[in-house]
Amino acid sequence: MTAELSSPGRASAAQGLRNPWVAFLIRRLSWLVVSLWVVVTAAFLMIQLVPGDPVRAALGTSAPAELVQARRESLGLDDPLPTQYWNHLRSVLTGDFGTSMTTDLPVSQLVGDRLPTTVTLAALSFVVIILIAVPLGVTIAVLTRGARWRGGELAFTSASVVVAAIPEFLLAVGLVYVFAVTLGWFPVAGGDGMGAWVLPVASLSIGPAAVIARIVRVEVLAVLGQDFVRTARAKRLPPWRIYARHALPNALTATLTLTGLLLTGLVAGTVLVENVFALQGLGSTIVQSILQKDYPVVQGIVLVYGALVLLVNLVVDLVLAALDPRSTIREA
Amino acid sequence: MRSRRWMRVVTTPSGAVAVALLVLVIGLAILAPIIWGDAASEVNDSAPVQGPSSAHWAGTDALGRDIFYRVLVATRLSIELAVMASLLGVVVGTVVGTAPSVLPRWAGRWVSSAVNIAVAFPSLLLVLFFAVVFGVGTTGAVLAIGLAFAPGFARLTQTLSAAVVGRDFVAAARVAGVGRLRILVRHVLPNIGEPLVVNATINAGQALLAFAGLSFLGIGVQAPSYDWGRLLGEGLTQIYVNPAAALAPAVAVVIAGLAFNLLGETAAAVIGVRTGPTRSGPLPATPGRDEPIDASGDQPVLAVENLHVAFPRDGRWATPVRGISFAVRPGEFVGVVGESGSGKSVTALAVSRLIEHPGVVTADRLDFAGVPMLSTPERELRPLLGTSLAMVFQDPTTSFNPTRRVGRQLAEVAEQHQDLRRGPALARAVDRLRAVRIAAAERRAGQYPHEFSGGMRQRAMIGMGLMGTPKLVIADEPTTALDVTVQGQILRLLSEVRAETDAAILLISHDITVVAQTCSRILVMYAGRIVEDLPAADLTRTPRHPYTKALLAVVPDLATDREQPLVAIAGRPPAPEQIPAGCAFAARCPLADERCRTDDPALVQVAQLHRVACWHADDQHDQGTMG
């Protein structure tokens, strides 16, 4: 693996260790392992911390004591804590997340069913956000640079503050009212085909798009003020080339850092939006399971969410390191 | 002082709106349950789930209760819970955030790592996690939201206090033996209080939204209690029958959330002391006073007459360059010298058409290679300037794009202006790097600027100017940011470029010795004007302007009489927005009289190739060799 990641062809063990990429990857991956361990442990402790008997709580007060006891034994809740922890770690590593207390289905199967909806929703929204926010932010930056267009600047900033302050589930309600109830263009909930995705994606995208557009604008303005942009102007490049070749890539590396936050925020945002539109994803499932006190399912989904967030952060860090030769790797 | 700053928050338009909204929301939170509490819980079996009417502005719910009143009454619980949750988050966050600076080092590191992991997760996921632990219900939701917001706040506290701990007065206190807890309470917390309060305000808005979300999902407030989120959740189920049931609480949440957010954002903006530029009046026209440049001889590469540069500043015009005239002839090596703020660099940017809006450049004449630059559209100028005017900037570290390879940054010029394709353009770039004596040019072209040394970067910058066939190289303090050892290299390289290509060079420098050694002619600038223009050979023999002499006098190896001349350059040059009437140097000039203070002298010819702007240029030849 070392040979593959350092420059191929002339890699030796000694070179591999000195290669900043290898050191960076080792550091970053060990951080990932630690974080994953924290998530797995937190998911384990979550059930231990639930006040009272989780099985009794799940089955209800009228359930016969024998059934409760049988469940407790099958879940291993009567074992000593270290044993339980060990079993938990082992089963998570083998992909066994337990069995739902309400449906008796394996949690892994449930997660497998629901994950695609959530991932599709988040991914579509991400693409829409980037497609709207980056061109918008760059355009506004170019139009308002050097206090050129104060009115436009003020209008954009205030509009984006207001839009960004509306949380996705409220936006969802508003969009449902206008486009589903009043105009009837899209289904209120459920439905098939692309039409069903329009409103959920829109409600997840509009707020973050406003935030990212603002950030892109500020970053582009900052980059436009840098010396190397003056150099590009001194080379008499046409403006579009300065914006596209010199300003945008530098502004985007700064923006990309925030993309991690955006993506993880989207994962969380899906929870509420799935509930508004009754989409069968992880978000609606975890809420139902919390209300039904179906703890194995909650635990499994918490693990998946945690892993998703860590994975997104890892990918963002790697992309950042690859894009900007000065970033994290060298500063290590 | 501080209270006045907070007053400023209220007087901004967005701040005023925020405060008005907040007063409305808090007023409702206090009064609504008292006034409409009974009306809101009045069950009416005969009118379940109705649309808006004059009796029920937002319709009724499944039990026939008035939704409008319920939304108003729910204000109290919604706000109460949001404030409780965010207070919890702020307190826990501050404690956790400051803990590393009080705890033993190893423990502090553990706390920091834990915070670092926690902030990677969006707060809503943490809320769900804690909601499971604390159980469904109001108390559980307050604890969940509070704890979920704590890591973010802890991170903020940590960052802010780290900045304060690094400051001198804390170091002084530590040296004085003040304990860590005492430093925290006495020095750190008071200095980070303001941003913390601002963020706590924004936090309260976020907590409000999070609570609405949680109650909407059914995990927060449980019946028969109700907050906005719960009303919203109930309303959504009947959105076809009565959309107002969902929209009314949604609007309430948005208004209250906006009030907190807007107040926080405005406060952050005001406390960050950001003032927007104000409008300046029209730029006053100034007629030229200097003698027009000599029209005889070769056509100059650069001809400048009555050049002004102005920038709007606080509603007035600052004029860093005030009507200068000069010419640069082919192959000439002209130095521009003066203190910082004398307008040298602005002149360099102005004659190369690099002054950007809102700066304004005016001139009676500004010709490059015979082309009037002010009247020719930029699009038409680009090929000419791109190939014949080279710029070398002060700091080669920041003047290269850090994310692009050096070779490509050079090649770009040829691709743009010489119609070369990628490959040949890069080959030309490698050739030019070789021309400025960069070893292993081929390999270097593929490297990023940060892999170059400072002197090498500056040479590459000169090489970039050589991609075309420059008629003029403008070098703005090209050696200031470099080691003294490489200074000579760069100046020699510029001289070689001149010798080999017959390009003229305009060298800007604050160092009169550098200019005297390298250039053939010298322009001395002071407060935006050229005060003397003379051949380099005459600089030490017959300087006429007192400022030129003062500049020479402060150079140690040229000084003869150390008793008096340093006094001549005491004081500072005037700021570009406060140029006095008369000669700008009068306040610092030992020869200044009444006339100097009222009339600004023009730059006039006093000898062959020698121009001076001084009323006393003729009456002190004896002091001419002072420096």
Task: Walk me through this protein's architecture.
The complex is a heterodimer of chains A (332) and B (627). Chain A is mainly alpha-helical and 332 residues long. Chain A has a domain at 118-279: MetI-like fold. In chain A, 78% of the residues lie in helices and 0% in strands. Chain A is built from 15 helices and no strands. In chain A, helix 7 runs parallel beside helix 14 (295-323), helix 8 (150-165) packs across helix 10 and helix 11 crosses helix 12. Chain A starts with a helix and ends with a helix. Chain B is an alpha/beta fold and 627 residues long. Chain B folds into 3 domains: 2-44 and 56-273, MetI-like (MetI-like fold, Orthogonal Bundle); 302-330 and 341-469, P-loop containing nucleotide triphosphate hydrolases (Rossmann fold); 544-627, no CATH class. Chain B contains 22 helices and 13 strands. Chain B has an 8-stranded mixed β-sheet with strand order 7-8-9-3-10-11-13-12, sandwiched between helices. Chains A and B meet through helix 3, helix 8, helix 9, helix 11 and helix 12 of A and helix 5, helix 8, helix 10, helix 12 and helix 14 of B.
- CATH fourth-tier homologous superfamily of the domain at 118-279 in chain A: MetI-like
Strand content of chain A: under 5%
Count of DSSP H/I helices of chain A: 15
Number of β-strand runs of chain B:
13
Rg measurement of chain A, Å: 25 Å
CATH architecture of the domain at 118-279 in chain A: Orthogonal Bundle
Specify the CATH architecture of the largest domain in chain B.
Orthogonal Bundle
Instruction: State the shape of chain A.
Output: flat
Strand order of the largest sheet of chain B: 7-8-9-3-10-11-13-12
Major protein interface: A-B, 73 and 71 residues
Average pLDDT reading of chain B: 84
State the separation between the terminal residues of chain B, measured CA to CA.
Answer: 50 Å
How would you state the average pLDDT of chain A, rounded? Answer: 82
- Over all CA atoms, what is the radius of gyration of chain B? 35 Å
